[in-house]
Amino acid sequence: MVPRKRSAPKLISFIIPLYNEEEVIPELRARLTKAVSRLPCPSEFVLVSDGSSDRTLEILEAWAESEPRAKVLGLSRNFGQQAAITAGLDFCRGDAVIVMDGDLQDPPELAEPMIDYYTKGYDVVYGKRTSREGESLFKRLSASVFYRFMRTFIHRELPTDVGEFRLMSRRVVDAMSSIRESHRFIRGLVTWLGFNQISVPFERQVRPAGVTKFPLRKMIRFAIDAVIS
């Protein structure tokens, strides 16, 4: 399908899942606020605390009290990134949606070129990592093996070096919301749905504070869910 040009979205929603990220939130807020000031449309921030046990939810609620465009969802326990993103997708109001990690390894500054591709008619614009700064050799190798396996045996169209960082149009979000399976592999589901898709390259940076919340145990469980999904 040939993309058809359209206007910038009337509202862009940022869905940001966070789990025990109290140290990162101040910089996240500063960079996100600066990034959206350059966008051709208003924005809302859907901040999802995924059962955090530190002060993440408290800090997010203070953010929302001082800024009307910030909306907070607090999950009753840690359900995992995929469930947290799904909650945000169900709640958001934007004509287009950007999903990004809260640890700032997904740069909010990439929203501008993503929206540019949206106006050119693309329904999905996903961030493609050209480098993975600060990640261990094991993490890089395991990611390579995972994508090779998925593309060979499960879904040959699945793009490599791509996480959940992406823009989706409202019709993609609505299609995603109609899929209610509990064991979710969002990047695979979005690829499977079709629509016009394109990538934007970026360098994945080292998180500015805190530690990864994705240990080996969660990586293995996520890989199993991806295969089954």
Topology:
Layout: E1 12-18, H1 25-36, E2 43-49, H2 56-66, E3 70-74, H3 81-91, E4 96-99, H4 111-119, E5 124-132, H5 137-154, E6 162-169, H6 170-177, H7 186-193, E7 197-204, H8 216-228
Parallel strand pairs: 1-2, 1-4, 2-3, 5-7
Antiparallel strand pairs: 4-6, 5-6
Structure, explained:
The protein contains eight helices and seven strands, in the order E-H-E-H-E-H-E-H-E-H-E-H-H-E-H. The protein is an alpha/beta fold. The protein has a seven-stranded mixed β-sheet, sandwiched between helices. The longest helix has 18 residues.
Question: Helix content range of the residues, please?
Answer: 25-40%
Strand content: 15-25%
**Largest sheet: number of strands, sense, barrel closure:** 7 strands, mixed
Please tally the helical runs, counting DSSP H or I stretches of 4 or more residues: 8
Q: Uncertain segments of ≥5 residues (pLDDT<50)?
A: none
Biggest β-sheet: strands ordered side by side in the sheet: 3-2-1-4-6-5-7
Number of strands: 7
SSE order: EHEHEHEHEHEHHEH
Category from helices, strands and their pairing: alpha/beta
Radius of gyration: 17 Å
- End-to-end Cα distance, whole Å, is 26 Å
Q: What overall form do the CA principal axes indicate?
A: globular
Mean pLDDT: 86
Short summary:
By secondary structure, the chain is an alpha/beta fold. The protein is built from 8 helices and 7 strands. The relative contact order is 0.18.
Main features:
229 residues; alpha/beta; 7-stranded mixed β-sheet; 8 helices
